[in-house]
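Q: What structure does this chain adopt?
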Amino acid sequence: MKHFVKFFVVTFFLLFCTGVGAEQKIVVMDLTYILNFSKPGKGAQEFLKKSYEDNLKKYSDMEQALKKEEIDLLSKKSVLSKDDYTKKSDTLRKKVIDYQSQRRASIDKLATQRAKARETLIKAIEPLLETYIKENNVSIVIDKKYSLGGSPKNDITEFITEKLNKTLPSLNLK
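A:
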């Protein structure tokens, strides 16, 4: 009988006292959505896309000109002397190397601008998120891509997007 009472008391405390401090508020936020669809994010994407398309056109034209020059040089191979042909082919080779380095530099510049824009946006989101966490007594914020499901009322993406649009209307990437 003595063991039965001890068992009953321990079981009672385990069943009713385990959930006392377990209330935590967890919210989700879609960082990709914020980066892509906020005003500064959209502006940065449009600027980067326009720069990419301009570079693509510029380097496509340069490539066509180099190919045309190569075809002209090959057609004149039998007419030119060996020394002239070597000189012109060396100049063409230097132009091609210069073209490749310029193209690589412009691609690297775009990648750097993209990374800088992302970093700037994330730095602008951090204080907004910290304020939201303090005001609403949130325990943890999880990126939406890492959650399997949940209530839509726990999604703060739209709220943070609106706040970001007000605090940072655009990015200056030039």
